[in-house]
Specification:
The protein is an alpha+beta fold and 370 residues long. It is 27% helix and 25% strand.
């Protein structure tokens, strides 16, 4: 039996493999950072073996409170992912699987492959509705592509949507796939109306270096992008996007994420910003209601405690953009595990849940703009 993670997004260190297929593993820390939680690896030569996995340092992860009552995802082909239940004793995360296949992939959540990212960018740019604004170079000189879809009119509302500031949250890019594929669909009337009315600026992956390295939260310099918006010079990825925002303006901002602990999809707002107004609060509440009306997987309740007035952390994208542009600004969070209100025993919160939420978000944006 052979285990490796030497591929895009892979993360695991092998401690030992016994003849009884008892496998001891450790999660690698993020680049130049103590964050850890994301893992993704493959097992070769697993056919007809009862594999017993133990992640020895799970208790040292960034969010150990996320392990209890959890699961991992597994796949025989890297495309069809299913859930395996886990046990956590406060230190070790354990799970087992009787494998009928020579190959078994295991991850914290269904990965978004680099080849699929390239296909999405290519598909969008091949449409009649999308053009490339720029490619912002990352720390390691990978491209952060900024796409534009819709009206180019100066007075058109500017909608900015970014994803994967935290690379170990691949559900964010599955969300973007659903949104973009619908937005470029010439047969979809909602999308046609939005393209005529608004300009969309879309970043499907803010952190390509961290995504390639198998990081949870940081880029190649060890910077958490979603704590860099008050000091954008600390991150070329954030600095490049914020400079573009200053040029275009922002009327609606969505930052797409995943949450390791909560079992529902929700939004977090910028209610703690110094210049947050009652009108912004009304727009925030209305947008959440519209998201729920468009997709029952989305909950109007907030998973995080509300910030007190003037207590927002302006290094967080949602808060910085909302304060800087006086716009509706939300962080959209999806679960790693499942939606407790609408469980899917086989897939949990799977790829199609994220795709469909991205797809339906255009209905909420339509209501917001009208």
């Amino acid at each position: 039996m052979f285990i490796d993670a030497g591929f895009d997004g892979g993360n695991i260190d092998v401690v030992s493999i016994s003849q009884g297929a008892e496998i001891a593993l450790r999660i690698r820390k993020d680049t130049k950072s103590d964050h850890s939680q994301w893992f993704y690896f493959r097992v070769l030569g697993a056919k007809d073996q009862s594999c017993k996995f133990s992640i020895l340092n799970a208790g040292e992860a960034a969010y150990p409170e996320a392990w209890p009552d959890g699961s991992v995802v597994a796949s025989y082909d890297g495309a069809d992912w299913f859930r395996i239940a886990t046990q956590f004793d406060g230190t070790v995360l354990a799970f087992a699987h009787d494998c009928p296949s020579e190959t078994l992939y295991v991850a914290l959540s269904p990965p978004y492959p680099l080849a699929r990212h390239h296909d999405l960018i290519c598909r969008a740019l091949a449409s009649d509705h999308c053009d490339l604004v720029t490619c912002i170079p990352s720390v390691e000189n990978r491209s952060v592509e900024v796409l534009r879809i819709g009206s180019h009119g100066e007075t058109a509302p500017k909608v900015w949507i970014i994803a994967r500031q935290h690379p170990g949250e691949p559900m964010a890019e599955w969300f973007m796939e659903g949104l973009i594929d619908r937005l470029i669909d010439s047969s979809d009337q909602v999308s046609a109306d939005l393209r005529a009315k608004a300009t969309f600026y879309l970043v499907t992956n803010m952190n390509p270096d961290g995504s390639s390295a198998g990081n949870l939260r940081t880029n190649a310099a060890g910077v958490d992008l979603n704590r860099a918006w008050a000091t954008p010079n600390s991150s070329p990825e954030v600095g490049g996007v914020l400079n573009l925002m200053d040029t275009t303006g922002v009327d609606l901002f969505l930052d797409i994420h995943g949450d390791e602990e909560f079992r529902f999809a929700f939004a977090a707002g910028c209610e703690g910003n110094p210049n947050f107004t009652p009108q912004m609060a009304q727009a925030d509440a209305a947008f959440r209601q519209a998201m729920h009306a468009a997709n029952a997987d989305f909950s109007v309740r907030n998973g995080y405690p509300l910030d007190a007035p003037c207590a927002a952390n302006l290094s967080v994208a949602c808060n910085q953009v909302g304060e800087r542009f006086g716009c509706l600004s939300l962080t959209i969070e999806m679960p790693f595990k499942d939606n407790a209100d609408r469980p899917d025993p086989r897939a949990g919160w799977g790829t199609q849940h994220s795709v469909k939420l991205g797809h339906s978000t255009l209905d909420a944006i339509t209501q917001f703009l009208s």
